[in-house]
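Feature request, filed as a ticket because there's no other form

It would be nice if the structure record came with a short human-readable summary line next to the tokens. Right now we just get the raw output. Example of a typical job, pasted below so the devs can see what we mean:
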Amino acid sequence: MMEKNSVRGMLRDVSLLLIGSLIYGIGIYMFVVPANIAPGGAVGVALMLNHVTNLPVGRLTLMVNVPLLILAWFHLSRAFALRTAFACGICSVVLDYVIAPVFPVYMGDQLMGSLYGGILVGVGMAFIFLSGSTTGGSDVVGYLLQKKYPHVSIGRALMMIDGIILSTSIFVFGNVDAALFGLISLYAQTKVIDMIIYGNDAGSEASIVTKYPQKIAERVIKEIDRTVTLLPGKGGYSGEDTTVVLCTVRKTEFNRLKRIIAETDENAFVIVKETSGIFGLGFKDVAEAQQ
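Raw output as currently delivered:
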């Protein structure tokens, strides 16, 4: 049963990754590239390089991600680095060799192109996140910063990085509109990802009643790089002692948490609460949340 679930899960993840890469590529090639904007992240840097060198965006995005993947290999986990490298490779191949030769580019209003591009890129990235992968870039930077500075606000750091990319795009594309429309595209992309994966909430808290608390805890720590809390409990009906696993994760990690629970104990009892804010180690600093 576990083997069948594993194969089914793998096929589902590959399908989500391929669908997400296709939608992501359409958004980038058809709308973002002709709009002359750089909406943050590794792809934003790649789009600016594309404007200067005219090299394919997919290959440039992969090139930008290579140093980050090397850092992830040594400072995060090899599994994460390999999974991210695979997703980046798929996205680059689909963009350069599937989307670019077939699909036309949108030559309409720059504002509408930025908006449509942000929406489609957001939908594509949401599917990629649901597959358990990431598109690299800002995600890798976030994990690296979180590893080195666990009390630093990762959200604010990434916002600053995207701000630098948007500001640089003014000089690369030669107009202020590039940054303004890039900001619109980035905002649309972020909101769509939130809506598809997790509504408008920042994360999720899961209370897991299971026969295998230690196994779930070990997998969460190893595979998601999150800590858990083991709470002693007692069944009200059976009177038996039990252990409740308490775990809080980000929206991009929630699907991986569900998979770990299902693969480890399909009879586990899970209560999930959506959260509008998470403060503390690995998330926003408690003192900063009061500002």
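Something like this underneath would help us a lot:
The longest strand covers residues 241-250.
The radius of gyration is 20 Å.
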